Each structure stands twice: as structure tokens, then as C-alpha cells.
Structures
1.
Amino acid sequence: MADVAREAGVSGQTVSRVSTGRPNVDEATRDRVLAAMRKLGYRPNSAARALRSGRFRTLGVIMFTLSSYGNLRTLDAIAVTAAASGYSITLLPVQHLTQGEVSVAFGRLSEQAVDGIIIIIEAHMLDDADITLPPGLPVVVVDSSARYQYPVVDTDQAQGARLATEHLLELGHATVWHVAGPPTSFSAGRRRESWEQTLAAHGREVPPVIVGDWSTDAGYRAGLELATDPAVTAVFAANDQMALGVLRALHELGVEVPGDVSVVGFDDMAEASSFWPPLTTVHQHFDEVGRQSVSQLLDEIDGELPAAVNVRVPTELVVRASTGPARIRELRA
């Protein structure tokens, strides 16, 4: 740094301001310092900076699965937002939803010198009081029913399920069948609960739930079952993958969509508009969930955030060709 200061004809403090990206340096001076850095091959020493400032400029992310569409989209948004804020991320996948693995993950990240941790584990296991979070380390939880005194950021799952269910009722369907996600999932539970509450609020019968596992195969099996019941005219699937499986089963059995049965999904994955027919679905703003989680964590790191903040990112219904007015179904031979 002293060499750069001599080369640029400035003080060491000015070089420090430029290397840390502070705005209080005029452009001509900044350009001169940057040119000196390039000429001398100077690179800021992040370890020394961390010792001096107490910041490592790294955020830890604990995630249960990398195969979930929503998790990957959220992780991508976290990485982009963190980079824009001058932070890198350290990802630690958790292979099994056990208390031990989550505790080990926290321990490993705290040893790797991170400034804070974002948890993306949607299962109800985080409600277990036996899981201990490291004291003094800022934490933000994404997509969970955790009751810790930490900020929680999530899509408004209940709003999305209500929008999907009400859309089908407004089209004249007597009730709406539901293909739910796994019981361990907080998101699946909130969507199912909101679907039930919406039907009850409109005085409609609540049909038996078919429970899936988020996969297209689960949706396909549910679709085969639903296709045989002429009372079924509207289906709300808890994610787009299961909705795709439902569509396949209905097509194979000659059930027209949306002529005989209307189908709504949840997520609005990139391919949803290319399903046949294009899928009506609930759009989740994963980019905003990721941005908010990083923003809340950085505020917490800076001591600018109250302990328990609950951020709900709104959803919106995207209406496409898979839903239409209700009509009496006739079983085909």
C-alpha cells in the first residue's frame, strides 16, 4: 500500500479509501491510484483487512437441497446481491435433515470466518428447540416456520394459495382439489392450510388432499386418480412440477384441459409458459426473497435491525390457458 501511495503521489489513507470502495475520493485521484495498483500488481490483503475491521466480507449459506427450483433461484439471488454488496458466499449443503447435521453446519461456518449466516431449510425441523444457533452470529432464516429471534424472509405462501383457489372458484368451479407438497415442508403446509381456509370462507366443500413430494411423478399419480372422478373440475397443485405431472395424466386419459379440468400450479418456473396448455400459476419473486435476505442480514451485521423481523414477499397469479370456466364433465370410455 505504501508503494502504491508513493507511485500515485497520495497518502496511504487515500489508497485505503480507494481499495475499500469508499466514495470520498475525487475521480482523478481514484484513477491515479487505480493505475498505480495495476502497474505494481497490488491486490488488497483481505485477511489483513478482516483483522483490522473485524469483517470477513463473507456470508455463509446453509441449504438442505440443491435440487429444489425455488432454493436454486433463491441461492442465485443471494449470490448476486451479496456480490453487489462486496461480499462472497460460502455454501454448506446439509445432506440429511437432522439436528446434528444442522448444528455441525453452523459450527463449520463459524470456524470459516463468516460475518453472518442465511439458512434455507424449509422443513419444520427448525422448530425443534434442541437445535442451537451460535450466539452472537447474525442469522436470517428463509422459507421456514422457525420461531427463533432472527429475521425470517419468505414468499407469502398463504396469499399465493388463496389467489389460486379463488381464481378457480371465480371461474364457476364448485370446489378445488389440491395436490399438496410433503408434510415436512413449511411451504407445503402453508399452501394447504390457506387452500382449506379459502374454500371454507366461500362455503365450499373441502375435498380429500392428495399428498405428493414435489416431483412430476407424484403429480402424474395424482392426476391418474383425479381423472377418474367426474366431480373433479379444478385442481390446484402445490408446485409447477406436480402440475406438469397432473397435465400429463389428464392428457393420457383424454381429459381436456381446461375444457374438463382446470389446473393451477405454484412457482411460475421458466418452463411453465411452455407447458401444454401454458400453465396458470402463482409467481414467486425468488429474486426479491434473495435480495431481502441479504439486506436483512447486512442490516443485522451492522446492528441496524431489530431482532425479530418477518418479511413476506407478495405473490401474484399469472393466468394462462390451463384454466377456464367450469362445465359438467363426462367420463370418456
2.
Amino acid sequence: MASRDKRVTLQDVADDAGVSRATASLVVRGSKSIKPSTHKKVIESIEKLGYVYDRVAASFRSQSSSTVGIVITDFENPFYHQMLTKVEDMLYKQQFTFLLGMSSESREKQERVLETMLEHRVCGIILTPVVDTQPTLFNKLRALQIPALLMGREVAGSGADYVGTDYRLGSQLAVRHLVEQGHRRIAYIGGMLPGNTAYQERIDGYCSALQEYGLEVDPKLIIPTPLNREGGIRAIQEVLQLENPPTACFCHNDIIALGVTIGLRLQGFIPGEHMAIVGFDNILETETVEPKLTTVSVFHDQWGVEAARQMLDRIGGLQSAPVKIIIPPKLIVRKSSVCFKGLPNLKA
């Protein structure tokens, strides 16, 4: 039993049990997310040290000690809305909340948001990293015993858990489908982020699928553009001005693809009929736009479930090598890629 002249703290319990303070806190608050073996170690330390749970003090700490920080790149992309809904649901069931921040693809802003979250003593970080994120960031988080999970983009040397999809395969599925529909000149639209692993894997898949069919990779058909509707509108205007324009477009994401459909209409063309279009992500709007958009589903709701589950395991004391969860993509064929008729000035 510890001496009565020094109050035993929850940190003392955590140190004795060999777990983080957040894990010890979850045990005393009765969270069901803790592994039985970890729960047993913490209880044994509590009994050995004579720790008394101060509920009054804990009430002032409860928000930060059961809060996960989530940082994404873009609030406007519906992909994140659907994924975050699942994360929130999983965390809520285990008595957790989350703080949400946006980086806007800025490393400086990302660092500022993360610092704010650390000041609020979050017990875990889920991050879609900006392209120049350095692995030293994760060294800092490990020193603070704060688990980190990367969402959708990897950072070499981070040592963090990861949830994402096989972007290369997804791109291959999209391009193979377009080639099998008879297209030989297929544009890739989107992405202005060299170093972005999700972008690079998509490009690799696009190129490799063309090469499978003996088709040339034409650099003029790879159109970099911001990852938004406006980028898609501007890109398709550029595509249509090419001397030998493509008959199909594979877009980096659905938001760009929706911009392409708008841009085609503005130029007097009918999306799908005059140019085939395939997106990537399978956001809800792809089923309501006309024509309905063929896209590659990455099952973003499952991303949310897996990310939350893995984060809860880490907070609960799971010790293992970094976990990489890859959710296989699936091509969803709709009207935008199967009703192509062509135009006299768009060579099939």
C-alpha cells in the first residue's frame, strides 16, 4: 500500500501497469473497449497502490481523456462526411467523442490543428496527412503515448496504423472497363499533389492498365487539377481543346467527375453519350446525378468502422506492430460509361 502522505494518481497506476494514462482512465470509468488482460493489469495496480478514483476531478477531465482528434484535408468532400459518420457512431458506443480539424492540404495548418488537439489532451489521432508530412510528427505522438492512425494516405517511416484502399487496383478496374467499352484514348483528370501516395497509386494503376492492352500512355491526357468541381470543369474544357481529344475520362475522385459532367454540358455535350466518365469513391451523389456515375467504390463507411475499431484497440492497450488495413475497391458500373455514342469531332 502506498504511503498516505502522497496521493496516488492515475498516472502512477498507468506507470505501474505499463499502460497509457488514457487506458487507465478508461478502466476506472468502466469502458468496454479495454482488453480483459489489460483491464486486469490496471485493476491489480489500483489495488496494489491504493488508488482512489476522484470523480469530482475526473468530471473536469472527462472531455479530453475520452476524445479522439481527427484531422482531414477537406470538409467539402462528401467522402469524409460518410466516413466520419461511422467513426462517430463507433466512438459514441464506447463513450468517446472526437474533435475535428481541417488541414486544407497545408502542413503549417495541420501542425497548428494537431497542437491544439494535444493541448486538449486527446487520447488518439486519426489523420489524413498532407503530402509533406514528416515521420518525426509520429515520434512526438509516441513520446506522448498517443496512438496515431493514418487514413487514406501513408507516410513512410511513420510507424502508424493505416486504413485505406488499393488505389492502384481501383484505377485498373476503371481503365479496364473503359477499354472493354471500346475506348482507346482515356484521359486521367485530377491530382496536383506529387508525393501523395493515393495520387501516385492511382496514376500507376491508370498507366499499367493501358499498357496491359498495348495502349500508349499519352502525357497530354494526364490533366492535373484541384480536387474539386471547379477543377473538373476547367479540366474538361482543356481536354476538349486537344487536337485529338479522348473519348473517355477517368477522374481522380467523384467530385472532379461531377465537375466534368457540368463542364461537358456547358460546352453543349451530353455527359456519358458524348464522353464516357468514371469517378472514384462512390459518394452518395453519384446515384442521383444524371447520368448516374460509374465509379470505383472504396467503401468509405467501412473505413470509418475499421479506423475507429483500431483506434479503440490502441487506446485500450493493444500492443502490436503497425496494422495496415486495406479494403478492396469495387467497380460500380452505371450509365455514364455505357451509353457512349460519340461525336464527329470526338474520335472513338
